[in-house]
Protein backbone atom coordinates (compact mmCIF):
# COMPACT_ATOMS: atom_id res chain seq x y z
CA UNK A 1 0.00 0.00 0.00
CA UNK A 2 2.80 2.39 0.95
CA UNK A 3 4.59 1.63 -2.32
CA UNK A 4 1.46 2.42 -4.36
CA UNK A 5 0.99 5.65 -2.42
CA UNK A 6 4.59 6.66 -3.10
CA UNK A 7 4.22 5.94 -6.83
CA UNK A 8 1.00 7.97 -6.95
CA UNK A 9 2.63 10.80 -5.03
CA UNK A 10 5.57 11.03 -7.40
CA UNK A 11 3.28 10.73 -10.44
CA UNK A 12 1.29 13.72 -9.21
CA UNK A 13 4.47 15.65 -8.48
CA UNK A 14 5.80 14.85 -11.97
CA UNK A 15 2.59 15.97 -13.66
CA UNK A 16 2.48 19.18 -11.65
CA UNK A 17 6.14 19.83 -12.48
CA UNK A 18 5.45 19.39 -16.18
CA UNK A 19 2.40 21.68 -16.03
CA UNK A 20 4.37 24.30 -14.10
CA UNK A 21 7.28 24.06 -16.53
CA UNK A 22 4.93 24.50 -19.50
CA UNK A 23 3.29 27.48 -17.80
CA UNK A 24 6.66 29.11 -17.11
CA UNK A 25 7.84 28.41 -20.66
CA UNK A 26 4.59 29.79 -22.10
CA UNK A 27 4.90 32.93 -19.98
CA UNK A 28 8.52 33.36 -21.10
CA UNK A 29 7.62 32.67 -24.75
CA UNK A 30 4.85 35.30 -24.74
CA UNK A 31 7.36 37.73 -23.28
CA UNK A 32 9.40 37.39 -26.47
CA UNK A 33 6.61 39.03 -28.45
CA UNK A 34 6.17 42.79 -28.67
CA UNK A 35 3.78 44.26 -26.11
CA UNK A 36 0.61 45.68 -27.64
CA UNK A 37 1.03 48.71 -25.37
CA UNK A 38 4.25 49.63 -27.15
CA UNK A 39 2.93 49.15 -30.66
CA UNK A 40 1.80 51.97 -32.90
CA UNK A 41 -1.91 51.86 -33.74
CA UNK A 42 -1.82 51.00 -37.44
CA UNK A 43 -5.55 50.34 -37.69
CA UNK A 44 -6.10 54.03 -38.49
CA UNK A 45 -3.55 54.15 -41.34
CA UNK A 46 -4.55 56.30 -44.30
CA UNK A 47 -3.04 56.46 -47.80
CA UNK A 48 -1.60 59.86 -46.85
CA UNK A 49 0.42 58.14 -44.11
CA UNK A 50 2.26 55.95 -46.63
CA UNK A 51 4.87 57.80 -48.75
CA UNK A 52 4.89 54.91 -51.24
CA UNK A 53 1.33 55.86 -52.17
CA UNK A 54 1.15 59.57 -51.39
CA UNK A 55 4.45 60.93 -52.75
CA UNK A 56 6.15 60.97 -56.15
CA UNK A 57 3.06 59.66 -57.88
CA UNK A 58 3.50 58.08 -61.29
CA UNK A 59 1.32 59.13 -64.26
CA UNK A 60 -1.25 56.59 -65.41
CA UNK A 61 0.17 53.76 -67.49
CA UNK A 62 -2.94 51.68 -68.07
CA UNK A 63 -5.26 49.33 -66.20
CA UNK A 64 -4.78 46.07 -64.31
CA UNK A 65 -7.63 43.71 -63.49
CA UNK A 66 -7.76 41.96 -60.11
CA UNK A 67 -10.10 38.99 -59.71
CA UNK A 68 -11.28 37.68 -56.33
CA UNK A 69 -13.52 34.77 -55.37
CA UNK A 70 -17.27 35.00 -54.77
CA UNK A 71 -17.34 31.80 -52.68
CA UNK A 72 -18.18 32.25 -48.99
CA UNK A 73 -18.23 28.62 -47.79
CA UNK A 74 -15.83 25.73 -48.32
CA UNK A 75 -17.72 23.08 -50.24
CA UNK A 76 -20.34 21.23 -48.22
CA UNK A 77 -18.90 22.35 -44.89
CA UNK A 78 -19.93 25.27 -42.71
CA UNK A 79 -16.39 26.67 -42.82
CA UNK A 80 -16.35 30.28 -44.03
CA UNK A 81 -13.94 31.44 -46.70
CA UNK A 82 -13.45 34.18 -49.29
CA UNK A 83 -10.51 36.09 -50.70
CA UNK A 84 -7.51 36.93 -48.51
CA UNK A 85 -7.48 40.66 -47.82
CA UNK A 86 -3.68 40.91 -47.62
CA UNK A 87 -3.30 39.35 -51.05
CA UNK A 88 -5.68 41.87 -52.57
CA UNK A 89 -4.57 44.98 -50.68
CA UNK A 90 -0.83 44.61 -51.21
CA UNK A 91 -1.07 43.81 -54.91
CA UNK A 92 -3.66 46.58 -55.38
CA UNK A 93 -1.32 49.18 -53.92
CA UNK A 94 1.74 47.97 -55.83
CA UNK A 95 -0.21 48.33 -59.07
CA UNK A 96 -1.61 51.72 -58.05
CA UNK A 97 1.75 53.11 -56.87
CA UNK A 98 3.29 52.08 -60.18
CA UNK A 99 0.79 54.04 -62.25
CA UNK A 100 -1.95 51.53 -62.96
CA UNK A 101 -5.65 51.97 -62.38
CA UNK A 102 -7.07 48.84 -60.74
CA UNK A 103 -10.47 47.27 -61.36
CA UNK A 104 -11.73 44.46 -59.13
CA UNK A 105 -13.92 41.69 -60.53
CA UNK A 106 -15.36 38.42 -59.26
CA UNK A 107 -17.33 35.48 -60.70
CA UNK A 108 -20.67 36.79 -59.38
CA UNK A 109 -19.93 40.50 -59.08
CA UNK A 110 -21.00 42.67 -56.17
CA UNK A 111 -19.56 42.33 -52.67
CA UNK A 112 -17.23 39.36 -52.31
CA UNK A 113 -16.58 37.57 -49.01
CA UNK A 114 -13.30 38.55 -47.42
CA UNK A 115 -10.99 36.77 -44.97
CA UNK A 116 -9.19 39.08 -42.56
CA UNK A 117 -6.50 37.49 -40.42
CA UNK A 118 -5.76 40.06 -37.69
CA UNK A 119 -2.32 38.60 -37.00
CA UNK A 120 -1.18 39.15 -40.60
CA UNK A 121 -2.52 42.68 -41.02
CA UNK A 122 -0.05 45.46 -41.70
CA UNK A 123 -0.29 49.18 -42.38
CA UNK A 124 -1.10 48.76 -46.08
CA UNK A 125 -3.89 46.33 -45.27
CA UNK A 126 -5.51 48.72 -42.80
CA UNK A 127 -5.03 51.57 -45.27
CA UNK A 128 -7.02 49.51 -47.77
CA UNK A 129 -9.84 49.13 -45.24
CA UNK A 130 -9.78 52.91 -44.71
CA UNK A 131 -9.58 53.74 -48.43
CA UNK A 132 -13.08 54.72 -49.60
CA UNK A 133 -12.36 54.13 -53.31
CA UNK A 134 -10.70 50.76 -52.73
CA UNK A 135 -13.58 49.71 -50.49
CA UNK A 136 -16.13 50.76 -53.07
CA UNK A 137 -14.38 48.63 -55.70
CA UNK A 138 -14.11 45.66 -53.32
CA UNK A 139 -17.80 45.86 -52.42
CA UNK A 140 -19.00 46.46 -55.99
CA UNK A 141 -16.87 44.01 -57.95
CA UNK A 142 -17.49 43.68 -61.68
CA UNK A 143 -18.94 40.32 -62.82
CA UNK A 144 -16.20 38.58 -64.82
CA UNK A 145 -18.64 37.93 -67.64
CA UNK A 146 -18.81 41.71 -68.21
CA UNK A 147 -15.05 42.17 -68.46
CA UNK A 148 -13.45 43.26 -71.74
CA UNK A 149 -9.87 41.87 -71.56
CA UNK A 150 -8.70 44.33 -74.21
CA UNK A 151 -8.89 47.13 -71.63
CA UNK A 152 -6.20 45.64 -69.38
CA UNK A 153 -2.44 45.21 -69.42
CA UNK A 154 -2.50 42.42 -66.83
CA UNK A 155 -4.73 40.30 -64.63
CA UNK A 156 -4.00 39.23 -61.07
CA UNK A 157 -5.84 36.46 -59.22
CA UNK A 158 -5.88 36.95 -55.45
CA UNK A 159 -5.95 33.84 -53.32
CA UNK A 160 -8.27 32.64 -50.65
CA UNK A 161 -9.64 29.11 -50.40
CA UNK A 162 -12.89 30.16 -52.07
CA UNK A 163 -10.97 30.41 -55.35
CA UNK A 164 -10.73 26.62 -55.41
CA UNK A 165 -14.48 26.42 -55.99
CA UNK A 166 -15.38 29.17 -58.45
CA UNK A 167 -12.21 29.89 -60.46
CA UNK A 168 -11.39 26.58 -62.23
CA UNK A 169 -14.64 26.01 -64.16
CA UNK A 170 -15.48 29.65 -64.93
CA UNK A 171 -15.38 30.06 -68.72
CA UNK A 172 -15.19 33.87 -68.51
CA UNK A 173 -12.06 33.60 -66.38
CA UNK A 174 -10.57 31.10 -68.83
CA UNK A 175 -11.31 33.48 -71.71
CA UNK A 176 -9.73 36.46 -69.91
CA UNK A 177 -6.57 34.51 -69.13
CA UNK A 178 -6.25 33.10 -72.65
CA UNK A 179 -6.85 36.47 -74.28
CA UNK A 180 -4.30 38.33 -72.16
CA UNK A 181 -1.69 35.57 -72.21
CA UNK A 182 -1.80 35.19 -75.98
CA UNK A 183 -1.54 38.99 -76.33
CA UNK A 184 1.73 38.84 -74.34
CA UNK A 185 0.13 40.68 -71.46
CA UNK A 186 0.86 39.63 -67.88
CA UNK A 187 -0.91 36.92 -65.86
CA UNK A 188 -0.32 36.85 -62.09
CA UNK A 189 -1.80 34.60 -59.42
CA UNK A 190 -0.92 33.94 -55.77
CA UNK A 191 -1.66 31.22 -53.19
CA UNK A 192 -4.98 29.64 -54.29
CA UNK A 193 -5.29 32.14 -57.14
CA UNK A 194 -3.55 29.78 -59.63
CA UNK A 195 -6.72 27.67 -59.48
CA UNK A 196 -7.84 30.06 -62.26
CA UNK A 197 -5.22 28.56 -64.57
CA UNK A 198 -5.86 24.83 -64.33
CA UNK A 199 -8.44 24.59 -67.14
CA UNK A 200 -7.13 27.26 -69.51
CA UNK A 201 -6.53 25.92 -73.02
CA UNK A 202 -4.68 28.03 -75.60
CA UNK A 203 -5.66 28.37 -79.26
CA UNK A 204 -3.01 25.75 -80.02
CA UNK A 205 -5.16 23.25 -78.15
CA UNK A 206 -2.49 22.81 -75.48
CA UNK A 207 -2.94 23.60 -71.75
CA UNK A 208 -1.59 26.98 -70.65
CA UNK A 209 0.34 25.28 -67.85
CA UNK A 210 2.07 22.67 -70.00
CA UNK A 211 5.82 22.59 -69.26
CA UNK A 212 5.68 25.86 -67.34
CA UNK A 213 7.21 26.43 -63.92
CA UNK A 214 4.45 27.35 -61.49
CA UNK A 215 3.91 27.90 -57.76
CA UNK A 216 0.85 27.90 -55.52
CA UNK A 217 -0.22 26.95 -52.02
CA UNK A 218 1.39 23.55 -51.57
CA UNK A 219 -0.10 20.24 -50.48
CA UNK A 220 1.93 20.37 -47.26
CA UNK A 221 0.75 23.90 -46.45
CA UNK A 222 -2.85 22.93 -47.12
CA UNK A 223 -2.87 19.67 -45.18
CA UNK A 224 -1.07 21.05 -42.13
CA UNK A 225 -3.97 23.42 -41.45
CA UNK A 226 -6.85 21.39 -42.94
CA UNK A 227 -6.17 17.69 -42.51
CA UNK A 228 -9.27 16.68 -44.49
CA UNK A 229 -8.61 19.10 -47.36
CA UNK A 230 -8.80 16.27 -49.89
CA UNK A 231 -12.44 15.76 -48.93
CA UNK A 232 -13.35 19.46 -48.84
CA UNK A 233 -11.77 20.84 -52.00
CA UNK A 234 -12.40 19.58 -55.54
CA UNK A 235 -8.65 18.87 -55.69
CA UNK A 236 -5.38 19.79 -54.01
CA UNK A 237 -4.02 22.69 -56.04
CA UNK A 238 -0.45 21.46 -56.30
CA UNK A 239 -1.66 18.09 -57.61
CA UNK A 240 -3.95 19.70 -60.20
CA UNK A 241 -1.32 22.11 -61.48
CA UNK A 242 1.03 19.17 -61.99
CA UNK A 243 -1.73 17.10 -63.60
CA UNK A 244 -2.25 19.87 -66.16
CA UNK A 245 1.41 19.81 -67.13
CA UNK A 246 2.83 22.43 -64.78
CA UNK A 247 6.35 22.03 -63.38
CA UNK A 248 5.68 22.73 -59.72
CA UNK A 249 8.20 24.89 -57.88
CA UNK A 250 7.77 24.20 -54.17
CA UNK A 251 9.49 26.53 -51.74
CA UNK A 252 9.79 26.38 -47.96
CA UNK A 253 6.48 26.14 -46.13
CA UNK A 254 4.85 29.55 -45.51
CA UNK A 255 7.76 31.55 -46.92
CA UNK A 256 7.97 33.76 -50.01
CA UNK A 257 8.38 31.88 -53.28
CA UNK A 258 7.44 32.86 -56.81
CA UNK A 259 7.82 31.33 -60.26
CA UNK A 260 8.05 33.20 -63.56
CA UNK A 261 7.66 31.89 -67.08
CA UNK A 262 7.86 35.04 -69.20
CA UNK A 263 4.45 36.72 -68.78
CA UNK A 264 3.11 34.11 -66.33
CA UNK A 265 3.97 34.88 -62.69
CA UNK A 266 2.72 32.75 -59.79
CA UNK A 267 3.32 32.80 -56.03
CA UNK A 268 3.16 30.16 -53.33
CA UNK A 269 1.38 31.89 -50.45
CA UNK A 270 0.35 35.28 -48.98
CA UNK A 271 3.98 36.10 -48.11
CA UNK A 272 4.77 36.03 -51.82
CA UNK A 273 2.36 38.83 -52.78
CA UNK A 274 4.72 41.83 -52.60
CA UNK A 275 7.41 40.20 -54.74
CA UNK A 276 4.90 38.75 -57.19
CA UNK A 277 3.16 42.10 -57.80
CA UNK A 278 6.46 43.91 -58.29
CA UNK A 279 7.65 41.14 -60.65
CA UNK A 280 4.51 41.77 -62.69
CA UNK A 281 5.44 45.46 -62.90
CA UNK A 282 8.91 44.49 -64.14
CA UNK A 283 7.41 42.14 -66.72
CA UNK A 284 5.21 45.02 -67.91
CA UNK A 285 8.43 46.86 -68.75
CA UNK A 286 8.83 49.20 -65.78
CA UNK A 287 11.21 49.54 -62.86
CA UNK A 288 9.07 49.11 -59.71
CA UNK A 289 8.75 52.24 -57.62
CA UNK A 290 10.91 52.29 -54.48
CA UNK A 291 9.07 50.90 -51.46
CA UNK A 292 10.34 50.56 -47.91
CA UNK A 293 10.54 46.88 -47.07
CA UNK A 294 8.14 45.83 -44.32
CA UNK A 295 9.06 44.19 -41.02
CA UNK A 296 7.29 41.04 -42.18
CA UNK A 297 9.36 40.85 -45.37
CA UNK A 298 12.57 41.23 -43.36
CA UNK A 299 11.49 38.38 -41.09
CA UNK A 300 10.84 36.25 -44.17
CA UNK A 301 14.38 36.97 -45.40
CA UNK A 302 15.75 35.87 -42.02
CA UNK A 303 13.69 32.69 -42.05
CA UNK A 304 14.84 31.84 -45.58
CA UNK A 305 18.47 32.23 -44.50
CA UNK A 306 17.73 30.11 -41.42
CA UNK A 307 16.30 27.34 -43.61
CA UNK A 308 19.15 27.45 -46.10
CA UNK A 309 22.17 28.29 -43.97
CA UNK A 310 21.31 27.72 -40.32
CA UNK A 311 20.81 29.69 -37.13
CA UNK A 312 24.21 31.41 -37.00
CA UNK A 313 23.85 33.06 -40.39
CA UNK A 314 20.27 33.99 -39.57
CA UNK A 315 21.46 35.75 -36.41
CA UNK A 316 24.17 37.55 -38.37
CA UNK A 317 21.52 38.81 -40.77
CA UNK A 318 19.27 39.93 -37.90
CA UNK A 319 22.14 41.89 -36.38
CA UNK A 320 22.96 43.48 -39.75
CA UNK A 321 19.35 44.44 -40.45
CA UNK A 322 18.49 45.80 -37.00
CA UNK A 323 21.77 47.19 -35.65
CA UNK A 324 23.37 48.49 -38.82
CA UNK A 325 20.66 48.99 -41.45
CA UNK A 326 18.04 50.06 -38.87
CA UNK A 327 15.42 47.90 -40.55
CA UNK A 328 12.17 46.82 -38.82
CA UNK A 329 11.81 43.15 -37.92
CA UNK A 330 8.64 41.15 -37.27
CA UNK A 331 9.74 38.68 -34.62
CA UNK A 332 6.15 37.45 -34.23
CA UNK A 333 6.47 35.81 -37.64
CA UNK A 334 9.69 34.10 -36.57
CA UNK A 335 7.91 32.81 -33.47
CA UNK A 336 5.01 31.57 -35.62
CA UNK A 337 7.38 29.46 -37.65
CA UNK A 338 8.58 27.94 -34.39
CA UNK A 339 4.98 26.98 -33.63
CA UNK A 340 4.63 25.50 -37.13
CA UNK A 341 7.72 23.40 -36.45
CA UNK A 342 6.14 22.15 -33.21
CA UNK A 343 2.95 21.26 -35.09
CA UNK A 344 5.09 19.14 -37.41
CA UNK A 345 6.75 17.42 -34.46
CA UNK A 346 10.11 19.11 -35.14
CA UNK A 347 10.89 19.96 -31.53
CA UNK A 348 14.56 20.77 -32.09
CA UNK A 349 13.64 23.25 -34.80
CA UNK A 350 10.96 24.72 -32.53
CA UNK A 351 13.49 25.53 -29.80
CA UNK A 352 15.98 26.82 -32.38
CA UNK A 353 13.41 29.29 -33.74
CA UNK A 354 12.41 30.29 -30.22
CA UNK A 355 16.08 31.08 -29.67
CA UNK A 356 16.09 33.14 -32.86
CA UNK A 357 13.04 35.05 -31.63
CA UNK A 358 14.75 35.72 -28.31
CA UNK A 359 17.89 36.92 -30.11
CA UNK A 360 15.80 39.30 -32.22
CA UNK A 361 14.17 40.71 -29.10
CA UNK A 362 17.52 41.24 -27.39
CA UNK A 363 19.03 42.99 -30.41
CA UNK A 364 15.98 45.24 -30.68
CA UNK A 365 16.05 45.93 -26.94
CA UNK A 366 19.67 47.01 -27.11
CA UNK A 367 18.59 49.67 -29.60
CA UNK A 368 15.58 50.70 -27.55
CA UNK A 369 13.05 49.13 -29.95
Order of SSEs: HHEEHEEHHEEHHEEHHHEEEHHHHH
Q: What average pLDDT do the residues reach?
A: 90
- Sum up the overall morphology in one term: globular
Assembly annotation: single chain
Structurally, how many domains make up the residues?
Answer: 2
How far do the termini sit from each other? 59 Å
How many extended strands?
11
Alpha-beta content class: alpha/beta
Assess the beta-strand content as a share of residues.
Answer: 5-15%
- Could you list the spans in which at least 5 consecutive residues all have pLDDT below 50? 8-30
CATH architecture assignment of the largest domain: 3-Layer(aba) Sandwich
What's the total helix number? 15
Strand order of the largest sheet: 5-3-1-6-7-11-10
Summarize the amount of helix as a percent range.
Answer: 40-55%
CATH class of the largest domain: Alpha Beta
> What's the story with the biggest beta sheet?
7 strands, mixed
Relevant CATH superfamily of the largest domain: Class I glutamine amidotransferase (GATase) domain
User: What is the CATH fold-level name of the largest domain?
Assistant: Rossmann fold
Rounded to the nearest angstrom, the radius of gyration is 23 Å
Verbal overview:
With 369 residues, the chain is of the alpha/beta class. The protein folds into two domains: 237 residues, Class I glutamine amidotransferase (GATase) domain (Rossmann fold, 3-Layer(aba) Sandwich), CATH 3.40.50.880; 74 residues, no CATH class. Helices cover 46% and strands 11% of the residues. The chain contains 15 helices and eleven strands. The strands form three sheets. It has a seven-stranded mixed β-sheet with strand order 5-3-1-6-7-11-10. The chain has a two-stranded parallel sheet with strand order 2-4. It has a two-stranded parallel ribbon with strand order 8-9. The N and C termini lie far apart (59 Å). About 6% of the residues have low confidence.
Amino acid sequence: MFKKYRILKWSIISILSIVLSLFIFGWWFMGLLPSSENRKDITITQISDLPYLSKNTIPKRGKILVIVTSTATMGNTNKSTGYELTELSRAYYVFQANGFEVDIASPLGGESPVVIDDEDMGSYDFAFLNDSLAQYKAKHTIPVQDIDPELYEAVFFAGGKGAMFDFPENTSIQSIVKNLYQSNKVIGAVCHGPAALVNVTLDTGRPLLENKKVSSFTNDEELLLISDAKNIFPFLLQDELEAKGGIFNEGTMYLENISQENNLVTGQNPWSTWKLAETMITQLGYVPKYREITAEENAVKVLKVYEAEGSKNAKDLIKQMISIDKQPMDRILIAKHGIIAAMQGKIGKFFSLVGLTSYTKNISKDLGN
